[in-house]
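Workshop exercise sheet. Pairs work together: one partner reads the sequence aloud, the other fills in the structure field after running the prediction. Swap roles for the next sheet.
Pair: D.N. / O.F.
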Amino acid sequence: MKRWIGRLVAGWMCVLPVAGFGQYYDWGRSPSGIRWNQANTVAGKIVYPDYFSAQAARVANYMDTVRSHVSYGFKYGPLRFPVILHTENFVANGIVMWAPKRIELEAIPPSAPFAEPWLKQLVTHEYRHAVQYGNLHRRFMKWVGYVVGQQAGLLSSVLLPIWFLEGDAVMNETQMASFGRALQPSFTIEYRAYLTEGTKKFPLDKWFCGSYKNYIPDHYQFGYQLAAWSREQYGDDMWSRVAEYGSKYPYTILTTKWALHKYYRTSVNEIARNTLDELTRFWRSLPVEPNSGETLPTPITSYTVYDAPMALNDTTLLALKRDMDKTSRVVAVDPRTGCERRLFWTGSVNTPPVLYDSTLYWTEYRSSTLWEQRVTSRACSYDLRTGRRRTLRERGKTLFPTPLPDGRLATVGYDYAGRYSLDPGDGRRFDFPDTLSIHGLAYDEVTGTLAAIALGDAGMSILRIDLQDGALRTIKEPTYASLYNLRAGAGKLSFNSIQSGKDEIHLFDLTGGREYRLSRSRYGSVAPSAPDSSGELYFTTYSLDGYRLARQSVRSDSLIPVEPRKLPENRVNPPRRKWDVMNIDTVTVSGDFPAETRKKRFRKGLHLFNLHSWAPWDFNPFHIADENRIDISFGATVMSQNLLSSTSGYLAYGYAPEFGSRLRGGINYYGLAPKFELSFEYGGGKQLLYGVKNLEYEGMKRKNYFQVNLLGYLPMTLASGHRVRTLTPSVELRHINALMCGDSSVKTGFQRLVTGLNFSDNVRMATRDFLPRWGYAARFAMVCAPFTEGFGRLYSLYGRAYLPGVMKHHSLMLRGNLQHQNLASQNFFYKELFPRGAAYNIVATRLGAASADYQFPVWCPDGGISSIVYFSRIRLNVYYDFARFRQAIPSVIRTFYRMHTVTSYGGEIIFDMHPLRIPAKTTTVGFYIYKPSDRSGVVGGVKLSLPI
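Structure field:
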């Protein structure tokens, strides 16, 4: 019995932090005007907009088709998960999540995918996660679920490392496709370059967690290589056994470590080292193929990606550029010397720029003003003659802007129902078949050809579009060799193809109807310029420094004829055993649900609450920890979050010796443009005393503390290009049952109303930035107690500015605050800026405060305690705070005013780190020392920022 109690206690210790991390990840809300339907399928309930029925049926049919194959290598099949389809977000992605459990899919395909339809790739990847969780959430963990609800599934997901969960899902989608993601040459290009030419051996944690010094591929790429190698060595059921061990003995915490040692006498470190060693041997054994293009000597400060080179004239080459130090921008390069200058910054680019008549056209992702799940693709232009930049607002939901010689601008449009169309710029619209997605558009003036890259069940093809009637004719037959970066000119098409086994530049002669390969690359070449009469083509070639600009003459002796093939060569991938699973590329499904499927309206009002988890402790899942403490005590908590993430809430009861019993809860509603958050707390202490506190009042009997708070706000994104601008009006009303003590009476309770208006304008941050390089924010607030007598009003104006420091990635933050408060019998402590570490509980009728912070990186150690904690960066922040305020001092004769000055100085040392090899998101721990002028000694402590 004691043994089992010990196991349960250890199990709770594991669940506790994970439960904290899980409340509760959501992707934001789709617009409130969407009417939702649901279909109950074998895989689970599918929730989708009513206009998306055909594509939702395809998702359901794909899931049903692969269901018996998707669990290959695992003992158990997939769990039933609700599936939510988001249809208005151009940022393609997918997620499987617990607490509450669901699969969320962004249904709009990416603009440059590989040769597999997006919904097929989504299903084979995300449905594999349902298999993984189906094998983890069993035995002991299933019993844990009865105690903590779906948080047990959240805990289950950490019994296998994140790199394996994603790497295994990539492996599944690759094995179920003709030439899937992991076989694409671009998937391994960074590893191939570094393991072939790199001279420094990185610690293993760096490959898992990333770096600010070097570009490191993500855990999808690394996870796939480890999962593939380990299965090759130890068998296809290897990770099924590891998962089963974790579900049986989760209280051992490091279940992967113990299972690997018990069954295979190995470890994650050994698997990683052996995988890297084998890949190094394999890639170094391949013949070295020198680059056929001449690399331009452009300036490089960090890992750099050039894209979309465009020749303006003989002395100027335009290109898109981004690196780890700066965000995306268009630069002008002198191809003779490599010297470059920035023309302008861009936002987040979706389809790359094209050049016509001294004007650039491209598309950028643009966020909706009100909704997180509405991210559109909008056409932009830049006139090189005038320097004028425009956002073509009439071209929303737009891809691949392509100028036509008569002045029109043709674009590919996307309808939220899942259908692509051509807008030739004259008011007409030609719809593409709903089984095709479009991933490139280009016009050749010599032959009058408007060409497009199309993707369907048979693979990728190049089509000719008749501008008179929209009829489609095939230029290049469908293939599972990925095609992208389509350009046209001088009677030819230029594009990328992986048919040779690497990313290379191909040309298609529109007159002769022949395809040729132009480039020969050591690693790969992409992004060709449009062919022209100069006989020279620009593109980018991969090296250890990233994608560099290159050029090559187009001569007959440099063109290699390409014969049509259905599959590309597999040259750069080590041999891996083929699974005995179906090929989803051979599957064609209809846009209708099976006849037996039950479909009905998904009424949002009836699905506001979804009680998914509970816990044997008291905590606020919306705010578990602040900078200095974690607010958790003994008790019980229940949690709710609906499938559309429009409503979430909790109710908690707790007890602690220092404050006694406490009941608290909250509910947040985000289903409309204005957001509402209601919270309350009862107990946890006695009523507060405000005002004159004589001995008579101090000794009076007080009730339990009670507070209720209602916050309403309207977050608006005004701009989301290179600069991100937001505007947020807010209103907060708080009731507290405090005792308001006057000279001769005591009143119970007061209501505080805070109205505010926030505006911010910041530039986008680069990889190595930790604060915006430029930016500012302003907030005006008014505080009053409209329903309680005796209070005056407080007006506050707050400002903040971000400025660059003396070196790269140094940041100077300046803040200021002015406040005016009308003197009354009761006053507010409210202050938006005050010297750190100083006594806050003063009432100021006038306040002026200023602060300066200078923060800079000290070191990027890229090391730590192997597999325990990895430090990616150490930062130092030094500051100085100043405040001068007027304090009222009442007396029998009259009220006196006294001016006070308070200062503070000190610093913080901040560690950006990754515990337990958790990739992507960074945990931040800071140690601070403040020296305020109003007290002796210093104030010190620890700040913790969790990647929640």
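Discussion prompt: The first helix runs from residue 2 to 22. What would you look at next?
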